[in-house]
Amino acid sequence: MLARRRLLTALGAAGLLPAAAWPQEQWPDRAIQMVVAFPPGGQADVAARPVAAALERVLGHAMPVVNRPGAGGILGSASVARAAPDGYTALMALSSLGVLPESERIMGRTPAYTVDQLVPVARVTADPTVLVVPASAPWRSLQDFLAAAKRAPGTISYGSAGNYSTLHVAMAMLTGSANIDLLHVPFQGGGPALTALLSGTVNALASGPGPALPHVREGRLRALGCWGRQRIPGFEDVPTFIEQGHPEVEFYIWSGVFLPAATPAAVQERWRQALRQICAEDEPLRRALEAAGSPVAYQDGEEFREFFRDDTARLTRAVQRIGRVE
């Protein structure tokens, strides 16, 4: 066995051994990069940091989280799509990953990446979005908010992580169902959008529950409704939009790990094994995600691939309904 390993090492150094032929046990042998395509503080960042810390404990190598924001998530996602397919660069993505290429086409641009350049490895979380407003706002309920929007169309503003981002699409579902006109203010990620809400720059936000929960608990934000079929843990007093008369308004913001599509199958499987292990067994990870209001909702393999296909198709239809955004 030792002789075989030495031979494989020599062949690899000489460039004579394809990457896919390397024994799975040789991966990883150095630090691994986890890319987040948004600034710190958003839903992808909230998931990526405890996941990376847990993977370091299992894989035995550093896993720095690198924030590469820009264009609503396009720049960071494209950087991973173009990265070397060796398993050392991964993306912690949100549901917007699948619809951003379609948004680029709608805007008349060539997409910076396509979905088939990335392979889904595992879903980590899947949370309904929650509508939050400043606690100082006059709206005590969703009914108050919608009535105010109808009285003064286009004057109530809401932030998002960028045009066609998950937070934009979620709000578009609500405005369409309620027949209201809100002012959309895009930012370079969920973190900056949440900061803008807290500072009073915008009036409302469709947020992942994790980033919003601490501010709701501290009394700085008020939640008016959620996009789930059931109420969200930590937001038990907040009714769903379905409960409040909007049966078609259902949306989930999920986080999942993706690799460049040409990554060897053995390395993809090692990623899945490690992610499955930490999501099932790593208590610090589970506690961190639960404390953030975003508990583990693990999927991998064909189950996650099917989920990603169906979710991307549904959200692509929503983006097409939004149309061109100037």
Automatic annotation (TrEMBL):
Q: What is the lineage of its organism?
A: Bacteria, Pseudomonadati, Pseudomonadota, Alphaproteobacteria, Acetobacterales
Q: Which residues form a coiled coil?
A: none
Identify its protein family. Answer: Belongs to the UPF0065 (bug) family.
What is one Pfam family matched by this protein?
A: TctC
Where does the signal peptide begin and end? Answer: 1-21
Among Gene3D superfamilies, the record links this protein to: Bordetella uptake gene, domain 1, Periplasmic binding protein-like II
Its protein name is Tripartite tricarboxylate transporter substrate binding protein
Which PANTHER family would you find in this protein's record?
A: BLR1237 PROTEIN, TRICARBOXYLATE-BINDING PROTEIN
For this UniProt record, give its keywords in alphabetical order, as a comma-separated list.
Signal
